[in-house]
Write a structure and sequence with these properties.
alpha+beta; two-stranded antiparallel sheet; single chain; Beta-lactamase; 353 residues; globular; seven-stranded antiparallel sheet; 9 strands
């Protein structure tokens, strides 16, 4: 293994990888968006289904609350329509019994949004009883997006008979138990290149916020949410944007820039993958939102972080539309405004992803 590739593995998969068959991904995106009933709708009572009226951006929603499905679908689609990057989303709201999807089964590079999956797998494997060292690693991994801590836990949950290719068998066991069938773990140690979908990430949020399940105990679920609530200030952007001020915010974001020297592929020109998942609880709120993006370009002659900021803006525009449609101004006059990292902070965070 070259020094460059070794560095990529230790950083959780930053850098270039062989270009994927993007045409197949686009076909999958179109097929997913065309489904009128969103993922997980089977668990809800029959309600009103709606697709957005914005051509080419067919967000699909279903809700038992009159008018909500159409308002959500139209408002989120309108925000997506103005963006040049590719995006997928999934949403659930237990209070209004609403779900929405858009390209929810299209796979994306996970970057650090794989970290809550690692946490879930650790809690399931240890039956919620973490050692002091494991708790320290988990807190660093979620609250500060620390990559070294993630790598240590990934290896702990892997079959290490071939140390150069740790097989994350215990993480796969967690995915199987949780019903996260879309997710494809990276089995070379590049955990940041795990393939995730909005559908599976929303399943994870439902698992963490659910009242009862056989995968994680109530104490384990509360612990996971506590860590996601304690994410450091500079990393609390994304899906929380526009959330009702009274809601308790639980968030985890991920970001990854492909190398400028990677494969000669039109989808690999130093563009950014920017993802965000958030759960909103307390004060009568019980909902979650996932937005995954890629192709966030860096304009020629501009700083590399411009592509990252573009991805954040895409996520936050969609998120504000979702929060406002679910809980209009009349019932939630104040809104959560995420901090926007300054230039120096952005440069520091690039190494975390």
């Amino acid at each position: 293994m070259t020094k460059e590739k070794k560095a990529e593995a230790e950083a959780g998969g930053k850098g270039w990888v062989t270009a994927r068959k993007w045409a197949a991904g686009l076909i999958a995106l179109t097929a997913s968006a065309a489904a009128v009933a969103p993922a997980h709708a089977a668990t809800l009572p029959v309600g009103t289904a709606a697709r957005s009226a914005v051509a080419g951006t067919a967000v699909s929603c279903v809700s038992v609350k009159p008018g909500l499905a159409k308002r959500l679908a139209d408002d989120m689609a309108a925000r997506l329509k103005t963006r040049r990057s590719m995006a997928s989303l999934a949403l659930y709201d237990r209070t209004t019994r609403t779900t929405c999807t858009y390209g929810a089964h299209k796979r994306y590079d996970s970057a650090s949004t794989v970290k809550p999956i690692v946490l879930g797998a650790l809690l399931m494997d240890r039956k919620g009883r973490l050692t002091a060292r494991e708790a320290e690693l988990a807190e660093k991994m979620i609250e500060h997006s620390d990559n070294a801590s993630t790598t240590a836990l990934w290896r702990q949950l892997s079959d290490l008979r071939n140390p150069k290719r740790p097989d994350p068998v215990k993480i796969q066991r967690f995915l199987n138990a949780a019903g996260m069938t879309d997710t494809v773990l990276d089995r070379t140690g590049n955990w940041g290149l795990t393939q995730i979908t909005a559908a599976d990430q929303i399943t994870l949020l439902k698992l963490f916020t659910g009242r009862s399940n056989t995968v994680l105990s109530a104490a384990s679920r509360a612990y996971a949410l506590r860590l996601m609530h304690a994410v450091e200030k500079a990393q609390r952007w994304g899906t929380p944007a526009g959330a009702p001020a009274g809601a308790t915010v639980h968030v985890k974001n991920g970001w990854l820039q492909r190398s400028q020297t990677g494969p000669k592929d039109p989808f690999d020109r130093g563009d950014w993958k920017v993802n965000s998942l958030g759960a909103f609880t307390g004060a009568g709120y019980d909902y979650g939102l996932v937005v995954l993006t890629e192709n966030n370009r860096v304009p020629k002659g501009r700083p590399a972080t411009d592509g990252w900021v573009y991805g954040i803006n895409t996520i936050e525009q969609v998120s504000r539309a979702a929060h406002h449609a679910l809980y209009p101004t009349g019932s939630a006059p104040r809104r959560y405004a995420p901090p926007r990292p300054g230039t120096a902070t952005l440069k520091q965070l690039v190494t975390l992803g």
